[in-house]
Write a sequence for this structure.
């Protein structure tokens, strides 16, 4: 029942904020628009807490207003919203499927988002290069959020890390901050059902730019995937202090929390 209430509230709030942000996008600059987007993200995180019992815990230091690349694990539709809520003024890379949502394309363009083809290839590379050029011309630094896998993945699994994070890091001469999470155990991919519990977003030690693409990507993947598996295992451990009951089911190599809400 709580999942139903949350989804109704979430999609209602999303529709309202889509209109609000589309109007804010008419204003010069993007400062006010970004405030509107962050407000939407924060409201969503509050709905997660109040309705579904999903508490978001941040570990490490979110790099607010820093010129870094955030290379994050992507296992939930809520990932980007949580990152926006916790990291402030963030630029982000997203797939061109987002342009299919009413008003979203206009808002993405006005906030400076880098939209790339989900199919990869030359078009995606060209979009990324254009985003690099625009990022270099921005007056004030802000983190750029990218999901190296390029797609949502089920809890306990991963995909080959694409070269986008390395390219951004090397061309912009920015450090990469790996980000691990287990949010997918509370909000699995794009699923309707949500699960209560504490979802962790963990900012790991930054990685310096490197000329060696393969070594860099292998290290990034190892850091993010290893720590995400550890967070998933931590989430699945029964909370003996609170006495809450947590059933366990196996999802590939990870254990998922299955207290339905």
């Amino acid at each position: 029942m709580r999942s139903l209430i949350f989804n109704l509230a979430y999609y209602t709030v999303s529709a309202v904020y889509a209109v609000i942000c589309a109007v804010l996008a008419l204003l010069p600059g993007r400062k006010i628009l970004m405030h509107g987007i962050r407000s939407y993200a924060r409201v969503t995180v509050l709905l997660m807490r109040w309705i579904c019992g999903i508490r978001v815990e941040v570990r490490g230091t979110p790099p607010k207003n820093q010129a870094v690349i955030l290379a994050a694990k992507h296992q939930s539709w809520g990932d980007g919203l949580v990152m926006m809520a916790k990291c402030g003024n963030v630029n982000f890379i997203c797939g061109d499927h987002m342009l299919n949502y009413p008003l979203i394309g206009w808002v993405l363009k006005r906030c400076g988002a880098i939209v790339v083809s989900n199919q990869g290839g030359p078009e995606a590379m060209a979009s990324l290069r254009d985003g690099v050029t625009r990022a270099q011309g921005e007056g004030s630094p802000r983190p750029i959020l990218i999901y190296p896998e390029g797609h949502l993945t089920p809890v306990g699994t991963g995909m080959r890390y694409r070269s986008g994070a390395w390219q951004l890091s090397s061309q912009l001469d920015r450090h990469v901050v790996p980000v691990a999470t287990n949010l997918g155990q509370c909000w699995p991919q794009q699923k309707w059902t949500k699960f209560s519990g504490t979802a962790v977003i963990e900012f790991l030690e930054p990685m310096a730019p490197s000329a060696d693409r393969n070594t860099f990507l292998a290290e990034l993947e190892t850091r993010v995937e290893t720590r995400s598996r550890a967070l998933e295992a931590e989430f699945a451990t029964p909370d003996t202090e609170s006495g809450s009951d947590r059933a366990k089911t196996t999802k590939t190599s990870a254990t998922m929390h299955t207290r339905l809400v």
Notes: The radius of gyration is 18 Å. Confidence is low (pLDDT under 50) at residues 238-261. The chain has one domain: 2-257.
